[in-house]
Amino acid sequence: MTTLLEAKGVFLNYGAIPVLKNIDLELIQGERLVIIGPNGAGKTTLFKVLSGELPPTKGAVRMGDDDVSRHTGFRRVRRGVGRSFQVARVFLEMTVLDNVAVSVEARHGHEGRGAGFFRISTSPEVMDEAVGLLAHLGLSAQQNTLASELSHGDRKRLELAMILALRPRILMLDEPTAGMSPTDRAAAVDLIDRIVTENNITLILTEHDMGVVFQLGTRLSVLHYGELVVSGAPEEVRKNLLVREIYLGRNSRHD
Amino acid sequence: MTSITRINRSTFFISLAAFAIAGLLLPMVANRGVVFLGGVVAINMVYGIAFNFAFQKAGILSFGNAMFVAAGAYTTGYLVTQVPQIPFLMVILLSGLSGAILAMITGLLALRRSSGVYFAVITLAVGELIHVLVTKLTFLGRNDGLVGVYRPTLNFGLFEIDLGQGNAYYYFILVVCLLLIAGLWVVWSNRFGRSLQTVKSDEMRSGFLGTDTDRRKLQALVISGAVTALGGALFAPWAQIVTPDLAHWSQSTKPLLFALLGGTSTFFGPAVGAVLFGFLEYSTRTLVGISDLLTGGLLLAVVLAVPGGVLGLIIRLTRIRRSGRTEGRLAEDRT
Ligand SMILES: Nc1ncnc2c1ncn2[C@@H]1O[C@H](COP(=O)(O)OP(=O)(O)OP(=O)(O)O)[C@@H](O)[C@H]1O
Ligand SMILES: [Mg+2]
């Protein structure tokens, strides 16, 4: 069992307000870890710390043998982290295809592959890869649409295509199915499942929908007011009474 | 739909050729005063495009034009008059380097900590510092600046070109400006340019694609500063005098005006703006006292009435005409 990403005694304060308290978490190669917890529990904040958007106030984030706590996001991306945002972030004024093409080019850039200074247009090789990714995610029809004209669900799919263009080892998805209709949600879950399996990706995600949680997760961790209270196989966690009380029982968001 | 991954080269080459031909023909049809203005406009085009490169591609609003111009002009002015044994092309390169260094320092100090208007104000402040500095330094001539900056001879070993003869220096300016514009177009359009665009579009997303966004912005500022300083370097022997006015903050508003006048969204917008501004200045030159007022008023009118700039308007109009034509043809087909 290889630990790909690890938080050790992580605290995070926004000003004086503690949001993450003494988080210990290991992401094991090949697993699909789902972080659940009520609104405001700190799930997104945990993602920010794990991905390098925020340095921990105290404690450390490690990748392999290295302490990456002070490494900003782009350096972790170069080590294989791909991250989505709770509200998908894409380049709104670019076409869908261009969004993915610049992502492929970004990977080529940090892989140290030169494009040739005088090569003006994107190479056919990059374009083919981008077109392929869009086909894979079922966005071919929208290829030439401006990203700003996409629905929120499609933006999430586009964002996923952009992240996959980076060929990540670790995929961090913050509520990948939020705001989707039940049919779109089922399709998105199948898609994520397929992509993660095909590309041998280690997955960590947050999710409110219990169906999605149990369908995708191989391990579950519950975040409650900034503390990881339970962690284990999905069925075990489900049975855990504490969780029933603090999360499943009182969660009115989807009722 | 405009795509940033499939660039149309011919539009660029045709536009550049148009500017080149107009520039080459100018001395044949115009008097010396107008040719002088032509050289100034060519340099202004470079200022405008260099400013807009940082602004439009990387989202950096910089009022550093004055200090970069001053860095280039003073370096060239000083070296040409005091160290004439340095080959002129080397002098020009060193001038560009001075702008690059100044941009690097400003960028390292301020780009990480500030953006938008805040960064713009910092560039103004650093620029003012440079302005005060050049008025105090004896070797830069204090308030008088450097006079007698002559146009030297280019020595290519096998042959020489005396830039002091006839219109030689004018053509030299033209060639160098066209090269600089071509260079800027390359970094505007290639993978590096696209990477900059992602930084401007959504810095967070760009960073999480693995791009070192701080470094990208610094690179954009350095390119803009170096190219602007190269323009300043060309200007020194053209005016044959370098004064602290070049470092005054009002100099920094010029490229912004060219960009707004011509349009910020296209590569050549600021170049068109610089040409229009040249026409404006020329046609109001005899109206002493009110010429600035007139120029200002006209600029205001254009900026308010045509938010996308003149080139933006032309492109919009041709698009409408073209689509109108196709619609007409379709209608004919149907009948
Ligand atoms: N930039 C910020 N400054 C101050 N407080 C913040 C900031 N961002 C989040 N918080 C607070 O930190 C807590 C955790 O927020 P976070 O977004 O991590 O929760 P979450 O579990 O992702 O919630 P949700 O399920 O709604 O997405 C919340 O109380 C929130 O109000
Ligand atoms: Mg959240």
UniProtKB/TrEMBL annotation, chain A:
<keyword id="KW-0547">Nucleotide-binding</keyword>
<keyword id="KW-0813">Transport</keyword>
<dbReference type="GO" id="GO:0005524">
    <property type="term" value="F:ATP binding"/>
</dbReference>
<dbReference type="GO" id="GO:0015808">
    <property type="term" value="P:L-alanine transport"/>
</dbReference>
<dbReference type="GO" id="GO:0005886">
    <property type="term" value="C:plasma membrane"/>
</dbReference>
<feature type="domain" description="ABC transporter">
    <location>
        <begin position="5"/>
        <end position="250"/>
    </location>
</feature>
<protein>
    <submittedName>
        <fullName>ABC branched chain amino acid transporter, ATPase subunit</fullName>
    </submittedName>
</protein>
<dbReference type="GO" id="GO:0042941">
    <property type="term" value="P:D-alanine transmembrane transport"/>
</dbReference>
<dbReference type="GO" id="GO:0015192">
    <property type="term" value="F:L-phenylalanine transmembrane transporter activity"/>
</dbReference>
<dbReference type="InterPro" id="IPR051120">
    <property type="entry name" value="ABC_AA/LPS_Transport"/>
</dbReference>
<dbReference type="GO" id="GO:1903805">
    <property type="term" value="P:L-valine import across plasma membrane"/>
</dbReference>
<dbReference type="GO" id="GO:0005304">
    <property type="term" value="F:L-valine transmembrane transporter activity"/>
</dbReference>
<dbReference type="Pfam" id="PF00005">
    <property type="entry name" value="ABC_tran"/>
</dbReference>
<dbReference type="InterPro" id="IPR027417">
    <property type="entry name" value="P-loop_NTPase"/>
</dbReference>
<keyword id="KW-0067">ATP-binding</keyword>
<dbReference type="GO" id="GO:0016887">
    <property type="term" value="F:ATP hydrolysis activity"/>
</dbReference>
<dbReference type="InterPro" id="IPR003439">
    <property type="entry name" value="ABC_transporter-like_ATP-bd"/>
</dbReference>
<dbReference type="GO" id="GO:0015188">
    <property type="term" value="F:L-isoleucine transmembrane transporter activity"/>
</dbReference>
<dbReference type="InterPro" id="IPR003593">
    <property type="entry name" value="AAA+_ATPase"/>
</dbReference>
<dbReference type="InterPro" id="IPR017871">
    <property type="entry name" value="ABC_transporter-like_CS"/>
</dbReference>
<dbReference type="GO" id="GO:1903806">
    <property type="term" value="P:L-isoleucine import across plasma membrane"/>
</dbReference>
From TrEMBL, chain B:
<dbReference type="InterPro" id="IPR043428">
    <property type="entry name" value="LivM-like"/>
</dbReference>
<keyword id="KW-1003">Cell membrane</keyword>
<keyword id="KW-0472">Membrane</keyword>
<feature type="transmembrane region" description="Helical">
    <location>
        <begin position="36"/>
        <end position="55"/>
    </location>
</feature>
<feature type="transmembrane region" description="Helical">
    <location>
        <begin position="62"/>
        <end position="80"/>
    </location>
</feature>
<feature type="transmembrane region" description="Helical">
    <location>
        <begin position="117"/>
        <end position="134"/>
    </location>
</feature>
<feature type="transmembrane region" description="Helical">
    <location>
        <begin position="168"/>
        <end position="188"/>
    </location>
</feature>
<feature type="transmembrane region" description="Helical">
    <location>
        <begin position="86"/>
        <end position="110"/>
    </location>
</feature>
<dbReference type="GO" id="GO:0005886">
    <property type="term" value="C:plasma membrane"/>
</dbReference>
<dbReference type="InterPro" id="IPR001851">
    <property type="entry name" value="ABC_transp_permease"/>
</dbReference>
<feature type="transmembrane region" description="Helical">
    <location>
        <begin position="292"/>
        <end position="315"/>
    </location>
</feature>
<dbReference type="Pfam" id="PF02653">
    <property type="entry name" value="BPD_transp_2"/>
</dbReference>
<feature type="transmembrane region" description="Helical">
    <location>
        <begin position="12"/>
        <end position="30"/>
    </location>
</feature>
<protein>
    <submittedName>
        <fullName>ABC branched chain amino acid transporter, inner membrane subunit</fullName>
    </submittedName>
</protein>
<dbReference type="GO" id="GO:0015658">
    <property type="term" value="F:branched-chain amino acid transmembrane transporter activity"/>
</dbReference>
<feature type="transmembrane region" description="Helical">
    <location>
        <begin position="218"/>
        <end position="236"/>
    </location>
</feature>
<feature type="transmembrane region" description="Helical">
    <location>
        <begin position="256"/>
        <end position="280"/>
    </location>
</feature>
<keyword id="KW-0812">Transmembrane</keyword>
<keyword id="KW-1133">Transmembrane helix</keyword>
